[in-house]
Design goal:
Helix content is about 80%, strand content about 0%. With about 190 residues, it is mostly helical. It has a domain of about 100 residues. Helix 8 runs antiparallel to helix 9. The longest helix has about 45 residues. It is globular. The termini are far apart.
Amino acid sequence: MHVLAEMFFRFFCCGLFAIGGGLATLPFLYDISEATGWFSFQDISNMIAISESTPGPLGVNMATYAGYRTEGLIGALVAPLSLVLPSVIIIIFVSKILDRFKTSSVVQHTLYGLRAASSGLIAAAGIGVAKTALLHLDALQGAATDVMAVIHWKAVVLAVVLYWGLKKFKKHPIVYIVAAAVVGVVFRF
């Protein structure tokens, strides 16, 4: 039960402070991984891939995955519920007072600051995902000085091609997710 209580607390804090949505939870997930060892950084990359490929909010999907990986079915319930609980509490509270104060300059400046904070959190998450997906982190840990040994070239090429395809053809993101999965299987990434 101790692990479930800690899981509740950690994901509650994650939900309380990860302003900006699912990707903003990534720095917190990295912190949870480092502090508890419940899952690895590689597991977080898998969480992102699975969460992006399944219906539902990214942060909730990742919390469900992390909870299940750590404590099975009960963890798969505790982690996402504790992640969304702060949002439910805050939304109820804010909805009661926002109409009254929405023209306030303090409220406007607060919202502007929160947008900047969420941009920073999402950028940090994107950099973390790019490091895990595009670099051989184990080569960075060692004494490797050869750039060719550090960069995961197949993944970089795939990312560039998918980005180009997304911008050029503007298909639904699921098309690119499926294409990436097929390429990963065929070329054994």
